[in-house]
Amino acid sequence: MSLTFWPVGGLGEFGANCLVLDVPSGLRVVLDTGVALGTLEEYGVSYEVPDFAALAGQNPALALLTHAHDDHLKGLPFFAGVFPETPLAASPGTWPWIRRLLEEPREGLKLGGAPLHLDGLRVDALPVSHSIPGSVLLRLQTAWGTVMVATDFRLAPSALGETTDREVLARWGKEGVDVLFLDATNALVAEPPPSEEVVAATLAALVAEAPGAVVAVSFASHAGRFFQLVQAAKAAGKVVIPLGRGIEEMLSVQLGQGTFALPPGVVRSPRELARLPREKLVLVVTGSQGEPTSVFPRLAMDELPVFKLAPGDVVIHAARVIPGNEKRLDHIFDHCVRRGARVVTAHEAPTHASGHAPAPELATVLELLRPRWVVPIHGRLRQLSELQRLARAHGARSLVVENGRVFRYGAGVLEETGELRPVGRLLVDADQETLDSAVVWERRAAAKGGVVVAVAAIPSDPKVPLPNPHIECFGLRLPGINRAHLAAELGGFLRQESSPLAKDPENVRAKMQAWLRSELRKRLGKKPRVVALTVEI
């Protein structure tokens, strides 16, 4: 009898974190329901979410949610749509985010304090230091072994003073950990990042010294970073203007939870921007990864009517750059510099401290927990493999697994079963609507090869011959080809047919599309998207 694990997402990638645990008693537990940032943004895809319908063979008895970051939680509406009866368990700090995501009000189980018990499964939750309040580390005890999930945590205190209890980790280690799922995000980071005290002091100095306005770009959910900027603005006699829906949501949740208290008069409404002195402004904005619809890229390109960058302004990037977003952010930083602003990132000053444990902290966790086996999670293969090396150096055995590859633990051995259960991805746009993959494919094809549109007018009088169609090209040049001549050739081709179907709209449309595809491929060596339309006159 073995514990069986099915990684749905998060192994071999950043994002879409989701793990399925099957207990021999028949119990199925899902850990996290995250999304991945889309790699198809230019085609209207905002993010990707696992297709949870692939799990429908066995309904989960419980969904455990470690914290409220998008890459662990944002897929919950899609999961709940497939499994509306599955109970949810999360910390008190995560539940407000769950209620915002789900259309139907839903109560569930609280993680933290007393352990949860369900059909021979015991779940303990340990509050940890991370960049969003309410993050927990999980221990799942069964008759077939003890599993721990340690994702998204630090041993160092957070910006809000949250800590991770090392004594509890040591006690759990003494009680025995068979399989440890451990966060590999910063496994390649050999030196500890700056402390939050250093970050706070750096932000305070930058805000105080800025001759113009300050634009601080941070993760929208990072309540601690926002509070540090508020404290910096207060000390410098300046005011904070939050811009972006994500920050507004964070403030609504955290103020409602009593996470912190804002000093009176420091945080102001965006409506006050026009009448406040520029040198008194500290704008805290969304878009730390350069997301196209967020505030930061629009501000950098003068697309915000309420504020324009000017010489003397300081832009502070107070966030980690998620791998893959470097090029996009470099372009945005250049736009800021063109407008005379100074840009300060974590490369120039300690403006951010990661919420993920670096290698020295991971080593400490391994020493405290002393697991039999370590499965690196939350990273690409390079990060996973480095954490495997670190785990082995601390006496643990380790298995690197990628998404979809089923593995099991039994009799002290963790091994792959050889079974592959791939899970597809749903593509979601900015309006939270699911995009058909065929639509995205068509957009990609149009972007790659351009679009040719041909419109044929079909006379209602059967004696009147078909006129030459009208042709327009988008995103495609026709070197050496005159569009009028091409249209004349196409018209001649259409008029050759004398059958009763010659003027049937569907027949004309199909013939135009086939002829244009063939001719453009022969003449240009390209395969543009061809759209053929007909109108009756």
UniProtKB/TrEMBL annotation:
| SUPFAM superfamilies in the record | Metallo-hydrolase/oxidoreductase
Q: In this protein, which residues make up the domain named Metallo-beta-lactamase? A: 15-203
Note the Pfam families from the entry: Lactamase_B, RMMBL, RNase_J_b_CASP
Hey, what's the signal peptide range on this chain?
A: none
Q: Which UniProt keywords apply?
A: Exonuclease, Hydrolase, Metal-binding, Nuclease, RNA-binding, Zinc
- Taxonomically, which superkingdom? Bacteria
What GO molecular functions are on record for this protein?
exonuclease activity; metal ion binding; RNA binding
Segments passing through the bilayer: none
Name it: Metallo-beta-lactamase domain-containing protein
Query: Which organism is this entry from?
Result: Thermoanaerobaculum aquaticum
Biological classification of the source: Bacteria, Pseudomonadati, Acidobacteriota, Thermoanaerobaculia, Thermoanaerobaculales
